[in-house]
Amino acid sequence: MADYEFIRLTQDGPVATITLCRPQKLNALTDELMTELTDALDIVGNDEAVRVVVLTGDGRAFSSGYDISPREAPRTTVQEWRSHFRIGVGAMRKIWDCPKPVIAKVRGACVGGGFDLMFACDLTVAEEQAFFGEPEVKFGGGSMFMLLPWLIGLRHVNELLLTGETLDARRAYELGLVNKVVPAERLDEHVEEMARRMSLMPHGTLVKNKSTIHRAYELMGVSEAFRLGEDIAVLTLSSREGESLEFDRIAANEGLNSALAWRAARFG
Q: Between the chain's N and C termini, which has fewer beta carbons within 10 Å?
């Protein structure tokens, strides 16, 4: 298995596990991490010995979304934002296009870009304490991987993308965003058993069935929705104004915690 800085790739028989490894930042996503994730997905996708892939996070979170800490050189141009989202959406699309089924194993926070990363996977098993959503709506963001309308109904998409509120694991299960919710102490065991059983399917079955399912979604226009989500994300973040700029200003001058406190105060 290849060596990486921000992820870990391991293999146990026919099951490969990709772990996001920025636990001190709750596995916040960066361009570098997403580039490594894309590379790892290429490796497991082309490895005939791998039948199932598990995607998870190190520590107490799946992923808290994109790292919004102030950058030394902030992105300001459309080209810079386009490059950023092309890397991120490319990694999510790589999960979607991976010939092997990908199981998301979710602990704790699964929000923002981490939420998009999770629902690009084919199956999700979450611990009872996990929570989900697009809270970056509250500082001008949105979903960069527009798969939600294919997963849940219009009213629920509206709830997530127009309020920025989060869902607990049980609510995510009720909406169909999560396949299983299990006690925290049983999460590893449950995912291992699911992956093992899937890997016992006759050779080629998983690849064929995933391809057929996704082809049906392609015929319904899902690829166009992916492109639209990326385009809107680029447009939104390259033309920030009002409250979004104020969040950025506070983060740059007073630190990210101050900006988050300011946002929390705005919403009570």
A: C
